Amino acid sequence: MSLGKEIGRATRQFAGYSGVAWRGPSLTLLIAWRNLVHDRIRFGVTLVGIAFSTILVGIQLGMLLNFLQTTSTVVDRAGANIWVAAHGVPSVDLATPIDGRRRFQSVAVEGVAAAEPYLLHFGFWKRADGIRQIVILIGVEPGAEMGLPLTLPAGQSFREALSSPDGIIIDRLYAEKLGVTGLNQLVEINDRRARVVGFTDGIRTFTQSPYVFTSLRNARWLLGRSDDVITYVLIRVVAGQDPAAVIERLSARMPDVDVMTSREFASSSQKYWLLTTGAGISIICSSLLALFVGVVIVAQTLYASTMDRLPEYAVIRAMGGPRWYLYKIVIEQAVIGGVIGSAVGIAAVLVLVYLGRNMSSPPLVPAWLALGIGAVTVVMCVGASLVSISKITSIDPVKVFR
Amino acid sequence: MKRAVISASGVSHSFDTGPTPVTVLRDIDVEVYAGELLMLVGPSGSGKTTLLHILGRLLSPSSGVVTLYGKNTQALGEEELAALRLKYFGFIFQAYNLFPVLTATENVMVMLDLLGVSRQIARNRARELLKSVGLGHRLDAFPSQLSSGQRQRVAIARALAGDPKILMADEPTAALDAESGLRAIELLQILAHQQERAVVIVTHDPRILHFGDRVIHLEDGQIAERLAAPRDLSPQHAMGAL
Ligand SMILES: Nc1ncnc2c1ncn2[C@@H]1O[C@H](COP(=O)(O)OP(=O)(O)OP(=O)(O)O)[C@@H](O)[C@H]1O
Ligand SMILES: [Mg+2]
Questions:
Q1: Which of A286, A339, B17, B159 has the maximum number of C-beta atoms within 10 A of its C-beta?
Q2: What predicted TM-score, i.e. pTM, was given to this entire model?
């Protein structure tokens, strides 16, 4: 066969063939991948940049989530539908007292199934070595159905533990901090004696002052308070009753206190710490900053890689390739970098979270947060490709060929 | 009478990138026919490349009309012109501009990908094309592993992949030694004569002038001379040389 015929056959055999069949992954993905791995150092820098940004964002948002969760732990775990608090209480830990009669006023309201007193106050804990710690004392009635963390280790019951006259319960996490080595150890709170009768698991505190659970009676005694003072009334509504309607009736009956759902109280406690302390704002700002630094690194390396390929991209334009074909290459490069970099970063975050699980405030990174950070990172990487895309938009195929 | 594939009439062009506009083409009339190898020659700076770009619809002239198969292309936008180039033109550039990160086969496949050909079919077709230009043994080589003559042939295969009616080459032999240059031109001649493609070549190279069916001599942006060169090499003769 002559050369001419052979070329003719080779070219015509497929002439007019358009992609009717399954097209398979586009060649742009291959070009994008090869562009990335072609310059390994640059690819490495890109990945390290993305991974570090992901790690920073992941750990910081994880801490934030932990803060948010711990600030409302006692509310979330109390199992009440409605909380009655002194007017203007900003956060569950920063309580002011209310009159003990509020409990009886609440019980009388239609739709209330149970109303229980809850006392919360700071106290001074003295360790055996004389060092003092601030703790948050929480007192509930021994028979209470609400207000207690439901994480007491098996074999123990709160009722039993709290029915002993001087009994207190602390969390294992803070045993060392409070100098407690075992059950039945005698301790001093506000210069009065108490006995450790049980341990909870995982009741963390945002303020770093450990929670100490005890009976209402004992709490009053330790705090040296008169008999009818409480901090909150915890309310369970009758099954099937609309809590909003019950809240309305409670507020009508007691206009000078705050009545809110458990969820409202939890989120107002969270918001208080988030917004007023500045801790939340600064964490969010530094997360954004980390994200921004990551974007700058990606934009930079992607731009350099695009500049390297400008002559080839111009050829594609000259051959008649549409611009979007080139955009696709660059965006795919960004997505590949983003996916790999953030996967590495998230893996590192999860390892760090695992290693730090026993710290007093370990970052909390649930699946939705990890995936969310990954998604945001990839989106930011695509955003970073805009600089390169603007460069491609201005490619003039003619310029390259002189 | 043969119908022109491309017809340019009254084409003038000036670049106004500098402080004063530079007129590089003045009132040019050119027709390009299927099955014919047209050579554009002339001294450096005479406007050959600019004219090739205008004929290849990479550049719009300042004035004048360029028609493709009788249709005026003046009013088309950038993306429409790109689609036109994709459909009708194959370009072979002096610098080849192959993707360094893609193999010879993949470089040819890019053109087919632009045309929407599926990956598997594109691969087979790219291989056949490369074999037909004598690169069957270097299918998976990267451009950096190829000689400049071989790279040139990859570029030719890429230009041919879309089965274009028109082939345009700017100084296709400039980077090649005499032997490879000759082979490349012979290949282009075959594509014109045996396959009825229109081939336009810009060149400086006096050794290849006689391959042209017609030679247009540019000087200072104007056509100085039109020559109908004798075909002193028949296609069969050319085959022998390959
Ligand atoms: N983008 C541009 N802006 C300004 N002047 C330009 C531009 N492109 C080309 N020119 C000028 O136009 C004239 C013709 O250029 P062109 O590239 O067409 O010449 P050529 O005949 O191909 O030359 P060579 O043989 O050296 O490639 C030259 O004087 C050149 O300097
Ligand atoms: Mg030139």
A1: B159
A2: 0.79
